[in-house]
Specification:
Layout lengths: L6 E2 L43 E6 L6 H17 L5 E6 L4 H13 L4 E4 L8 H9 L4 E4 L9 E5 L1 H16 L7 E5 L6 H14 L4 E6 L6 H15 L4 E6 L2 H13 L15 H9 L5 E3 L2 H16 L3 H7 L2 E5 L2 E9 L2 E3 L5 H5 L6 H4 L5 H6 L4
Parallel strand pairs: 2-3, 2-4, 4-5, 5-6, 6-12, 7-8, 7-9
Antiparallel strand pairs: 1-11, 10-13, 11-12
């Protein structure tokens, strides 16, 4: 096997309109894949409903993990196991060392399967190998981990970058050719960062003038704010036409730096994750867009993968993982890649509100009431 950077080995680019409704992404019933079985299951097929799923999430700065992912996975595991299965949860709070310690504890506690959103894909490979040696399957969640993982569930992360880049191009319009764009990329230790960046560059490179690019260690807001300050100094506040910010957690400090430098009107800034504060910035006109990655579909499908793997239900497991993806240490990893949606002022109601991610009341607090009224959000 020739090690390769993470990429999808199926050449699938999902055609998706920027204003597509999230309701179109409701979970369809899975079909049976003829002739596919998993004869090398690391879990006993006799395992019943009394199972323990270990869930390792990376940080608390990204609000979706504690607010959505954990409770959704917990609920789905309970549903699939007649309320006999349980989820043991740990959050690394942005510490690679802590995530490794938490991973080892789950191995020591002999959980039946581990769902892990790796802070550092390369660093976690040794922990994944330890789990494999202990006969505990590992499913990479949201970010592709290195090592001998059994499956991967995430969103189409190249598409995330494409949607962000496309949004910038659409907003710049005829000004794009002469526009100066700053790129605030994510953590280089996160394998998704390269995919976001590739997707964005596919849309932006050669069409705009990318004047500054920065990586953001550990997705740190402080690092992003400092780097945006450097970009403003190097390029000039008035000459920055748009900012590609890889996530909402980076968009906030980018906008803070622009305002601190005296920007009366913030140029288009992208994001992803649909954090509540980001949605409120979109309502206020400070952030141009975010990428909504339907949490319910990703979380419930991950829970199904985990339960089916432990119970030896190979046909159902294979039906969930009909995509394939490569990591630097493993080829043709069974995967499910969930589509994404761009959210702007124009489609908050038919995406986030319709999908019960937030209510109008949660978004339109007193501070944002006038902004909500101005865009007809009520």
């Amino acid at each position: 096997m020739n090690p390769r950077s993470p990429h999808t080995s199926v050449l699938r680019r999902i055609g998706i309109a920027l204003a597509a409704s999230a309701s179109a992404l409701s979970i369809a019933a899975c079909g049976v894949v003829d002739g596919i079985g998993d004869s090398d299951s690391s879990a006993s097929p006799e395992k019943g409903d009394d199972i323990t799923v270990g869930l390792l999430l990376p940080d608390k700065d990204t609000t979706r993990f504690d607010k959505f992912d954990h409770p959704l996975i917990k609920k789905e595991v309970a549903t699939l196991t007649n309320n006999k299965g349980k989820v043991v949860y740990a959050n690394a709070e942005a510490s690679v060392a802590e995530q490794s310690r938490q991973f080892q504890k789950m191995i020591d506690d002999k959980v039946d399967v581990i769902l892990v959103d790796a802070l550092d894909a390369k660093a976690i490979a040794s922990d994944v190998q330890k789990a494999k040696d202990a006969n505990i399957p590992v499913i990479a969640y949201d970010r592709l981990a290195q090592g001998p993982i059994d499956a991967y569930v995430s969103h189409d992360n190249e598409l995330v970058g494409e949607v962000q880049g496309r949004a910038i191009m659409g907003e710049l319009g005829s000004r794009a050719e002469s526009a100066k764009v700053v790129m605030m990329n994510g953590d280089p230790g996160d394998p998704n960062t390269a995919l976001f960046k590739k997707g964005a560059l596919d849309e932006l490179e050669g069409k705009v003038n990318i004047v500054q690019q920065y990586d953001t260690d550990k997705w740190s807001p402080d690092v992003a704010e400092a780097n945006m300050g450097k970009a403003i100094e190097a390029v000039g506040l008035d000459d920055i036409a748009a900012v590609y910010a890889a996530s909402d957690g980076l968009a906030g400090p980018v906008i803070k730096a622009l305002k601190a430098a005296g920007a009366s009107k913030v140029p288009p800034v992208t994001g992803q994750d649909a954090n509540l504060d980001a949605v409120q910035r979109i309502v206020a006109g400070d952030q141009y867009m975010t990428v909504y990655k339907p949490f319910a579909q990703e979380a419930t499908q991950a829970a199904k993968m985990a339960v089916y793997k432990v119970q030896g239900r190979s046909i159902e497991f294979d039906a969930l993982t009909q995509d394939k993806i490569d990591s630097p240490t493993q080829d043709d990893i069974p995967a499910q890649l969930v589509p994404v949606i761009a959210v702007t002022q124009d489609n908050i109601e038919e995406t986030l509100i319709q999908d019960d991610v937030y209510t109008v009341k949660e978004i339109c607090t007193a501070e944002y009431a006038a902004d909500c009224a101005a865009i007809g959000l009520k």
